[in-house]
């Protein structure tokens, strides 16, 4: 029982750390007012990397052994652990899915950032791709995500036009 208590303490520490990561990932992002759409892709890539690392750690043999021992001992700490494991998996899947969809927009970010109003020819294709993401993505199709994306696209267009006007 002493070993079980020590292992439960370890799992409780992990649980607290994982909860902290989840809470931090859900906090509102602070970004510059003029940040472009590539920042959205970078955010989700970073989040995907963090959650994938966390999943790799959770799936490591060391963690699996501890969880197995606690399962055999019918530890009460495992209920919280299972819930967190599920939350991490969902967050990792969301980040991975969002990166996959945002990569479809990546080809528009370069032309959008070019210092020329010619970018207007890319807008219909860009909007079709955004529409496709909204209609098909199981995670990214919220008004919050779409608003953030449109704001960044608009910022990039404004910055491109400002640059064009200042250089011209």
From TrEMBL:
It comes from the Eukaryota. One of its GO terms (molecular function) is dynein intermediate chain binding. GO terms for biological process: microtubule-based movement. One of its GO terms (cellular component) is axonemal dynein complex. Pfam families: DHC_N1. InterPro entries: DHC, Dynein_heavy_tail. Residues 4-166 form the Dynein heavy chain tail domain. This is DYH5 protein.
């Amino acid at each position: 029982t002493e070993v079980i208590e020590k292992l439960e303490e370890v799992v409780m520490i992990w649980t607290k750390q994982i909860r902290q990561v989840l809470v931090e990932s859900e906090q509102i992002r602070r970004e510059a007012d003029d940040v472009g759409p590539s920042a959205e892709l970078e955010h989700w890539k970073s989040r995907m990397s963090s959650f994938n690392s966390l999943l790799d750690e959770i799936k490591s043999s060391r963690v699996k052994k501890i969880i197995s021992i606690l399962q055999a001992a019918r530890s009460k700490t495992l209920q919280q652990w299972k819930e967190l494991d599920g939350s991490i998996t969902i967050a990792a899947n969301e980040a991975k899915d969002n990166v996959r969809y945002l990569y479809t927009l990546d080809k528009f970010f370069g032309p959008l950032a070019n210092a020329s109003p010619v970018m207007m020819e890319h807008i219909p294709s860009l909007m079709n791709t955004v529409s496709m993401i909204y209609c098909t993505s199981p995670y990214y199709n919220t008004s919050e995500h779409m608003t953030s994306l449109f704001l960044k696209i608009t910022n990039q267009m404004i910055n491109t036009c400002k640059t064009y006007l200042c250089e011209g």
